[in-house]
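// run 5 | inverse folding | seed 20
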């Protein structure tokens, strides 16, 4: 069982991890299909995991819709909420709180995390006081370590300040390097650019970095295939793997499908939701064929079943630039 991109790299398990914060769109479909093609070609198991921890944005109706959309596209999975004779709750993040609590306890005992009461406004103010106000277009403000060593526990932090606390990872100095199967060699200075990053929200809910890493480790995922908007998350998750004494998986970050304005797909770019194509009577083979075309696997779009691309799929043909959705895409995808 080997990954298509490198005959020397083993590939046993990957995951499909939709989030029910909205409907799946063409970009999601393309990334999930690429994941599925790579896995099925390698003979690897596919795990379905519903990432529903964002309670404020999660939409219950989107959970079943995600399963239905992926099934409509022709994707299947070996373990997960919809797999026969499988304890589905184990694959839904909102039911996995005990796993995250255990990881936090281990990190706390090892001295890798500390309580923090700093809000985003507090951090911005601290940075402004020390080095001038950040620019409006700054993507991220580095956390300066204000709460490092201040409090023993989150309860003590709240008692002392009257503010709720989160847990932050103490990030060591130096770069984190890894090789992405699509983006190539990568090196990130997490300490210098991001600083100590949060592992929980102030209400105790696990943050994405913690939940994703803990789940991938617990589910023995050895290949993570996802959108390139999460490339900068990878070095943070690698630091968590190291702190917990686990081996990181291999990573492949798929360039996103975006609108002509360079932004993530939205209604202003035209209808791109999978559910709407289904409702309009568009055959799933047209969407799959579009994804194959936009993944560099075929020269022009044609109707294909998902299984048709398992054998011929070649990761080396995948475009390394983001795909801009335009008139040609919508013309092919018209009912």
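// decoded
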């Amino acid at each position: 069982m080997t990954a298509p991109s490198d005959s020397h790299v083993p590939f046993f398990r990957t995951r499909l991890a939709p989030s029910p914060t909205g409907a799946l769109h063409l970009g999601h479909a393309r990334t999930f299909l690429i994941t599925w093609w790579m896995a099925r070609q390698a003979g690897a198991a596919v795990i379905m995991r519903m990432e529903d921890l964002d309670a404020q944005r999660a939409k219950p109706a989107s959970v079943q819709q995600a399963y239905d959309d992926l099934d409509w596209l022709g994707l299947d999975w070996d373990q997960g909420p919809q797999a026969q004779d499988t304890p589905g709750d184990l694959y839904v993040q909102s039911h996995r709180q005990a796993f995250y609590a255990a990881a936090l306890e281990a990190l706390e005992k090892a001295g890798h995390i500390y309580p923090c009461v700093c809000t985003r406004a507090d951090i911005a103010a601290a940075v402004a006081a020390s080095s001038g106000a950040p620019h409006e277009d700054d993507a991220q403000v580095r956390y300066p370590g204000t709460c490092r060593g201040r409090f023993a526990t989150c309860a003590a932090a709240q008692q002392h300040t009257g503010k709720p606390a989160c847990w932050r990872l103490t990030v060591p100095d130096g770069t984190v390097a890894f090789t992405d199967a699509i983006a190539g060699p990568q090196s990130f200075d997490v300490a210098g650019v991001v600083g100590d990053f949060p592992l929980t929200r102030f209400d105790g809910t696990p943050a994405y970095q913690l939940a994703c890493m803990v789940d991938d480790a617990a589910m023995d995922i050895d290949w993570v295939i996802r959108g390139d908007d999460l490339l900068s998350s990878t070095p943070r998750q690698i630091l968590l793997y190291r702190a917990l004494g686990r081996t990181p998986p291999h990573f492949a970050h798929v360039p996103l499908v975006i609108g002509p304005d360079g932004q993530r797909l939205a209604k202003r770019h035209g209808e791109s939701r999978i559910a709407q194509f289904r409702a309009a009577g568009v055959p799933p083979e047209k969407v799959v064929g579009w994804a194959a075309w936009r993944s560099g696997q075929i020269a022009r779009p044609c109707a294909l079943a998902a299984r048709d691309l398992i054998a011929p799929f070649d990761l080396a043909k995948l475009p390394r630039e983001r795909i801009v959705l335009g008139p040609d895409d919508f013309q092919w995808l018209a009912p």
